[in-house]
Amino acid sequence: MRSISKLILALYLVTTSIGHVQASSNPSDFSVAGTISRTQSDFQVTQIASDPYFHQQWYLNTMQIPQAWDYTTGSNIIVAVIDTGIELTHPEFAGRIWTNNNEIPNNNKDDDGNGYIDDYHGYNFAEKNSDVKDYHGHGTGIASLIAANSNNGQGIAGVNQQAIIMPVKGLNNAGGGEYGDVVKSIYYAVDNGARIINMSFGAAYPDANLKVAINYAINNNVAVICTQQEMLVQIGLPAAYSSVISVGSLSQTLKKSYFTNYGVGLDLTRTW
User: Fold this and answer.
1) Mean of pLDDT values over 214-242
2) What is the pLDDT of residue 252?
3) Is 238 helix (H, G, I), strand (E, B) or coil?
4) How far is residue 49's CA from residue 128's CA, in Å, rounded to a whole number?
């Protein structure tokens, strides 16, 4: 019988390629592509969960997630979502947002001495402040698919119904980002206790510091999950690095999604 910990990771993995991404023409930039509703949790799958949109989450049934819930609904593992931020006050995240208990919020001091002021709910590396609110929508959508509160009578059902989301804003409000900000985001997530890092974005060009940061995460037993996207003849980064778990996408008819990558370097696919 497979271990519960592996099953929990599997539950999480199937949610990670929702927001497909592509690189901009600037070799130093990441960017998200496609759109996710600002409140992806307003996106509704049968009353195996009481969430009103549960009957529209066809992908859960396709991947037999409700059957997996018979064994586990997840764990309180800390998942760092490096993205455009998270809508902290959304009811789907009530009680599920990571808190830095060594930091006093909004006192304009670095109470825990980690180099970041007021990082009570993560940090915004794109703008160098503690505002991790999502003004784009992509990060909120990704986080809700991973861990939206289930059986709460509203929105959707997250795959891991117990996970704690650590908001790390490595992309700006337009959905773009620089390598340096993503690198710092990875170190922050690892050093603050994340056990899984999700990065649903990509770029076409390699970066030595990015690879070192990912290896730092792996060497500290942090799983790194990245999406793949259509990049013509190449697989996007950071998904192409062999040390990360790269995720592709299938459509509802179980055919390759138009935006996904495929082939060597892709570890698994999931339906969306």
Assistant:
1) 80
2) 77
3) coil
4) 39
